[in-house]
UniProtKB/TrEMBL annotation:
Protein name per Swiss-Prot or TrEMBL: Leucine rich repeat variant
Record SUPFAM superfamilies: ARM repeat
């Protein structure tokens, strides 16, 4: 695949491009394409498009640079266009160019669904079709603007009301229309919409539909009075939806802390604005999910955390181990927990002291060792030992540890797992010379990442 190259690191953009061309590697060439001048771009383009199978690979690959995808869009090949239309990395201008010459409705539908398709293209598509699936694709695209949505409502009556009621760009006037003519599901979507007119809040609040009231309770723009009313609704699903609302008065929260439904109490327990009295009440809740959510609250006192650390349910103890306010003494205690999942949480906790991490590093469980390997407080000698772990996940955790030194990371340049080698390219601890040793890596993703990294250095 590749010719023998000079091992010395390129000292300029021109040298980097020369190496990519000499290598004959499409992934290295794609990585430096945006860095090249007109002459070298032509040579790189010839390399990239020489083999149809290579073109198809790059057209499908989500990491292919936007300018290379734009290059491929100029080829007269339906299979290539299909892959470009589906590729999440294809950018707005390329999609516009593809649409301009497109006649196949299946391809146009893919463009209409694409996350990077512009509002202008969606507007144009809408003016050229009445096909239900294609119009629905336009309406569901987050990039469709209010003008396009209004046109859909005008041209297709109530055919797409459900999609229009859920679209973030739908404006208040259209929402009023949709609510007035919609069924219960459309009305529920309208009352939850961020642009829902307050006049609709008043109308919807008088209904007895749990579906509509539940969605109304999730709208962050309802006032304190309405949120309180919904939080005390007879239907637990409405109360649960309202229980997380930021405008709830304290007296309502005091009621919800003792709600008969554990689903409501779980939502309340996850709030960070609980008073000490509320937390004490939830501390003794019979539902372990309530205690688990409470155990994550950074406002818990030391004594409350110690109490929850003795909980019979492992997920509650794990939550204590994850709490940012849990002190080192309690973490050391939890490091001896019988449940691996709890010990793993201790290993991942930034507050865990180095002495405890050294003990955890002697255990066999991969989740615990992965947490130790990722912890910034883990001593370097321990990281060096873990870098030779049989687990690729543990070795990768060492690589992702910002405190890992060059000496610790150098052996990992020969890691057998390609993803680990690729992640080393972003390491600040390794020098450019260290990274360049991967220039002829057997994995294309590693080569692409390396040449991309060097391209960015030369663009600065």
């Amino acid at each position: 695949m590749q010719t023998q190259l000079n091992d010395s690191m390129p000292g300029s953009a021109a040298e980097l491009i020369s190496v990519a061309l000499d290598s004959g590697d499409i992934y290295s060439a794609a990585a430096v394409y945006g860095l090249a001048d007109f002459h070298d771009k032509k040579l790189l383009a010839e390399l990239i498009t020489a083999q149809r199978r290579d073109v198809l690979k790059l057209a499908r690959w989500q990491h292919t640079p936007a300018d290379v995808l734009a290059l491929l869009a100029g080829l007269e090949d339906d299979a290539v266009r299909l892959r470009l239309d589906k590729n999440p990395a294809t950018q707005t201008q390329t999609l516009s160019n593809l649409y301009r010459d497109e006649v196949d409705i299946s391809f146009i539908t893919l463009i209409a669904k694409h996350a990077h398709t512009s509002a202008d293209v969606l507007w144009q598509i809408l003016h050229t079709t009445t096909a239900t699936d294609l119009v629905r694709a336009v309406v569901k695209n987050p990039n469709a603007d209010s003008k396009t949505l209004a046109l859909v409502a005008e041209k297709f009556a109530d055919q797409f009301d459900a999609e229009l009621a859920s679209h973030p760009a739908t404006l208040g006037d259209l929402l009023m229309t949709l609510y007035a003519r919609g069924n219960e599901f459309v009305q529920a979507a309208v009352v939850a919409h961020k642009a829902c007119p307050t006049a609709i809040f008043t109308i919807a609040a008088k209904l007895e539909s749990s579906l509509i009231l539940r969605h109304l309770a999730t709208n962050p723009h309802i006032d304190k009075r309405l949120s309180a009313r919904l939080a005390l609704d007879k239907d637990y699903s409405v109360r649960r939806a309202a229980a997380s609302h930021k405008n709830l008065p304290v007296w309502v929260l005091e009621e919800l802390v003792e709600d008969q439904s554990e689903y409501v109490r779980r939502v309340v327990a996850a709030r960070e604005d609980l008073t000490p009295e509320m937390m004490n009440c939830l501390l003794a809740d019979t539902d372990h999910w309530v205690r688990q959510w409470l155990a994550l609250n950074p406002k818990l006192t030391e004594s409350q955390l110690y109490s929850l650390a003795q909980d019979e349910h492992k997920e509650v103890r794990r939550a204590v181990a994850r709490n940012p306010k849990t002190n080192s003494a309690l973490l050391s205690q939890l490091a001896n927990d019988q449940e691996v999942w709890v010990r793993a949480a201790v290993a991942n906790q930034p507050n865990t002291p180095a002495s405890t991490l050294i003990i955890l590093a002697e255990m066999d469980d991969i989740d615990v060792l992965g947490g130790v390997a990722a912890n910034p407080k883990t001593p370097q000698k321990v990281l060096q030992r873990l870098s030779y772990s049989i687990s690729a996940d543990v070795r990768r955790a060492v690589i992702l540890n910002n405190m890992a030194t060059r000496q610790t990371l150098l052996p990992l340049l020969d890691d057998p797992y390609y993803l680990n080698r690729m992640m080393l390219i972003q390491s600040r601890a390794l020098s450019a010379d260290d990274k360049w040793t991967l220039y002829d890596d057997p994995d294309p993703a590693v080569r692409f990442s390396l040449f991309t990294w060097f391209s960015r250095q030369y663009q600065q």
